[in-house]
Task: structure prediction
Amino acid sequence: MNKPSCLPGTCVTLLETLQTWICDITSDSRLFWLHGDPGTGKSAIAATLIKWLIGQNSNNTSFKLGGKYVCQRDSLVTLRKPQTVLLGIIRQLCDNCVPYRTKVVQRLHQNQNLKGADMGNQFVQLLQTPLLQLQSGSTEDLPCYVFIIDALD
Result:
């Protein structure tokens, strides 16, 4: 992410709120939607959180950065398509979570048509179902994976 971070001493309260929310893996609320007018610093906050999460990855086993996706207005239209965002999230989670990657590879071997399937089917088959399988059948403690998606508008 090439966006500038928050300047030291700025956005402290909001960043602390977000960090507390991330650390509370027992919370029922697993989505934090940060919104505001253009130019109000949302991308800087996202960049700062990403740097913080990267720093936490080596120190923390209860949560880690699962991935990040930046949808810039000036990027190619294909990079901002919902299906491209979904596949980017799936790829990054595969990179960061070996048990999840194993489940996705199994599903792709079982149904090679998933590569060209519609987004709804890809979501269910490559994201939702493997995650539910991990949740219900895991004997190891997996961290809570945090994803930062910036400029989804």
